[in-house]
Amino acid sequence: LVHVEPTMARQTRLVIFTAVFIAIPKFSPRCHDRASVELGVASAQLEAKDDRHADSEDAIDWHEWITDDEHRDSPGAEMLTWSAHEAWRVLSNGSTSTLSSPPPPPGKAPRPPVFLLAGIASTRLVNWREKACRGSNIKARDVVWVNIGKLVETNTIDPTCWVDCMKTGPGGTDLARGCVLRPDEGLDAVSAMAPGTWTSGISEVYAPLISLLVDELGYDAPGSLRALPYDWRLSPRRLEERDGFLTATKLSLEHAVLVNKRPAVVFAHSMGNLVFLYFLEWLKAVSFKGDRRKFQKWVDTHVWCYVGLSAPLLGAAGALRTSLDGETFGLPLSGDSAREMELTFDSTHW
User: Which pick of 72, 80, 170, 212 has the fewest CB atoms within 10 Å?
Assistant: First the structure.
């Protein structure tokens, strides 16, 4: 598991890599030995130091980095670039058992299913109960997180309405007079947060990776490419209690493996890494009642590799800003309004 922290990279012009292995037999060595964990992310961050990327360290050209042999000679990227190529071969060959098998004819062989688990504030939230506001109401089926047009429209006349809509009650419950927000469904929920001509590009999450897998390798949804959208305002415990999220994740993995005849590759970003690790612990303690052998067999059958992107496995100091000053995420909100809203989130205290 390779941890890349892009925020720190931007601030200090450094890229920090921390190798962390999950304490599950056969699970992490499989990711490490077959070098399939980075899938070009770590390599792309290293290339940010190259002159031609000097002005845009955060721009990752997934296609260029994974498919272009030129980057094998990049300074300091020998191991990382090699592993990116090997990961590409795993997905393009449709094989999770050997790296030496020849590529199958296009469209003829099942591919390892890919699952995408987003981070905090990176899953689109939709309202399911109309909320009255001065001026324009927030209607059922409106995208609330994050619809810039709706935010500006609402805040123009009723500055507190949108913030109140985003709030949760104790334990992540829905407020009596508030909105009922639930995660959107499918790949759209984690591709870009703010749909629209001008805002989609700047709010992209997994959109570039989705395009790469679909255009270059022929992945499709919901067959071989799936998202795991969740309400990031809630802790994993509350997600299971309210939405049955952990149970649904287990069933989705089982179904994808059944259909594709391959164990899955799971991508998790930021807070999504903690949610996925919680899922594994829940799986062992609850689903298999502490039976390590059954748990390990399930993991071996259903999860080929876990890819951690910007994984805050040792915590994230930036999370303190939410409690102390409020995190606006670049939205037209005051710090006080953001803090008031975020302190109601169960995930803030988790």
Answer: 170
